[in-house]
Amino acid sequence: MRLVDKAHLLLRITSTHGIARRYFVVNGFDGALTMLGLIIGFMVSDPPPVAIIISACLGAAIALAVSGVSSAYVSESAERLRALEQLQDAMAVDLGESFHGDAARWVPMMIALVNGLAPLVISMLIMMPLWLAHAGVQLPVAPLKMAVLVALVLIFFLGVFLGRISGVSWWRSGLQTLLVALLTAALITFIASN
Questions:
Q1: Which of 42, 67, 62, 64 is nearest to 53 (CA)?
Q2: Integer CA distances (angstroms), 73 to 7, 9, 59, 110, in order
Q3: How many CB atoms lie within 10 A of CB 109?
Q4: Distance between CA 114 and CA 24 in Å, rounded?
């Protein structure tokens, strides 16, 4: 069985597709808002060199990823083992070598990777204008402003994704997440300016 097929089967057996999607959106949103907050903070202060901004953003992105992987693995591991034990008790059979046993071992790792990679990947995308500017590439606008724009676009699309999943207006859902991001930016700007 191919690895992708097996992963799909294990997620289906445990009914954890929804959990993986939820972790992706929630932690992706956390990563995007964290990067937005850092970048807005740098914008309203006396911005240091781009290399320092990149280091600070990269540090935050890595911390979010490690936190996401470790917290999801610990919690999902406990949940999957508990579910396996309940199923074994109900069936009065050892399922350790079955697909259910595989799911108890592998699904927590898959969920943890989704939980950790979502903020990391989204943060890296937001940091792209900073890296380009640091490499000497001329951007149409200042790198911090471009990074804010990328963050807002990604946050909007996370909302669109949520809208598509839930069956509500994708446009409205995208605007709601964008509004949260704009309010966050405004709050940071207001606090930093006073």
A1: 42
A2: 16, 19, 21, 9
A3: 15
A4: 6
In sequence order, what DSSP letters do the residues of 161-174 get, joined into one string? HHHHHHTS-HHHHH
What end-to-end distance do the CA atoms of the chain give, in Å?
A: 60
pLDDT at 134: 96
8 Å CB contact between 151 and 181: yes
pLDDT in tens, 143-158: 999 999 999 999 999 9
Which whole-number Å values give the CA distances from 10 to 67, 70, 83, 90, 97, in the listed order? 24, 20, 13, 20, 13
Instruction: Decide if 110 contacts 20 (C-beta within 8 A).
Output: yes
Q: Domain containing 70: what range? A: 3-193
Instruction: Name the average pLDDT for the chain.
Output: 84
CB 160 within 8 A of CB 29: no
Q: What is the pLDDT of residue 11?
A: 56
Q: Record the pTM.
A: 0.83
Indicate the number of domains in the chain.
1
Q: Which parts of the chain have pLDDT scores under 50?
A: none
Which pLDDT score, from 0 to 100, does residue 23 have?
83
Distance CA 173, CA 156 (A): 8
